[in-house]
Amino acid sequence: MENEFLNKSSIINYSSKNYEKKSTSSISEIIFTKNDQTTQWLNTYGITYQEDFKKVIHQNKLDDFLIKLLSDEEHPNKVILLDGLLFLTTRVLITESSKFESEQMIFIVSPNYLWSIQEKEGDYFNWIRERLQGNKGIVRKKKADYLLFLLLESIIDNYQDTYQENAELSSDQLSSANIKPTPEFTSLVEKRKQELFNFKKATISLKDTIVKLEKIEIKGFNVKYFSELKEQTNNLITNIDFELQELESKINLIFSIQGHRLNEVMKTLTILSVIFIPLTFLAGIYGMNFENIPELKFKYGYFILLGVMVLVTIGAVWYFKRKKWF
């Protein structure tokens, strides 16, 4: 189990002048730095290595409450201030999956080190690793608080990029010109709404975490970076809400089109019924089997009745036209 934990873990030590990516053969080699000039990033894929987590916590003399926190399989959003460090957990949407599954992501942060624990392998952080290795930007001049900011920003950026990409596809498929009152079109709208609800839920989750982070006070840990993340999440939530309103309007338009079509059909049937009712009435009268109906023996009675029927039909149609009923 220890070997598996080590294979799923990576350690990066960096400062303004140095960068080192370490490989370890034993958990005993995982010692969090206390050097103010060096920052350490330990990243682990998998949240089931409970015994290995205990070893890391004990040998680094971290707060014992971390053992209890890491033993919980499911975490709601938490930002907990412990002895000299910060425990942060949130659920993150996996945008590479077509089903938009989520994973647990945990951060244990102090001013000099950051331990990120991810439920599933794979992340959006390669660009941060490249910046650290290539000494690009200011990341190596900053401490773990700025690294946490970049990790959270990377998650939000991924949400925004995925949202924009899907929004463009949705715009083509669900444009106003393509609105059709069919089950297929309605299904596409509902599918898109479900995607947006997942995005909104995940973004609100991150926003709540960031709001809690802003209130944390740890010596050497600067929270000024996180106000920008809150603005980014607010903008994304606003865009999602706007598209949800558009989709709701399209659903209402579909129902309106269906109602209009139904009204047109009912109007046509009603007009035809009104035209044929008097004709049926006349046919019914002269279809009765009474001998003393004078018109039955009249030489031109049949033709006169047909003429009356034609006149009744023309009169009804003229009246409907005048009323602009069709």
From TrEMBL:
It comes from Polaribacter cellanae. It is a multi-pass membrane protein. GO terms for cellular component: plasma membrane. Gene3D superfamilies: CorA soluble domain-like, Magnesium transport protein CorA, transmembrane region. This is Magnesium and cobalt transport protein CorA. Mediates influx of magnesium ions. Alternates between open and closed states. Activated by low cytoplasmic Mg(2+) levels. Inactive when cytoplasmic Mg(2+) levels are high. Keywords: Cell membrane, Ion transport, Magnesium, Membrane, Transmembrane, Transmembrane helix, Transport. It is found in: Cell membrane. GO terms for molecular function: cobalt ion binding; cobalt ion transmembrane transporter activity; magnesium ion binding; magnesium ion transmembrane transporter activity. The chain crosses the membrane at residues 269-288, 300-320. The keyword Transcription regulation does not apply. The keyword Repeat does not apply. Belongs to the CorA metal ion transporter (MIT) (TC 1.A.35) family. It catalyses: Mg(2+)(in) = Mg(2+)(out). CDD domains: TmCorA-like_1.
